[in-house]
Amino acid sequence: MQATVYTYDPRTRAGSVLLDDGTPLPFDAAAFDAGGLRLLRSGQRVRIDIEGESGDEGDGRRVVLVTLHTL
Question: Are 4 and 45 in contact (CB under 8 A)?
Fold first, then answer.
């Protein structure tokens, strides 16, 4: 799945992405580290892997991997 970096804090290595439908999803340092990245910038396109599902009681999805989007 593709997304756009919305926020990123290099101190904590956590942030959030926006899905193509505008839904924000946070990611933690573990998801960032799993992708082997060193830095992200707001507006950058990335590929993400998520776990969980969206339901009536809220969004149970979480980002488990953030990598650079390449063609």
Answer: yes
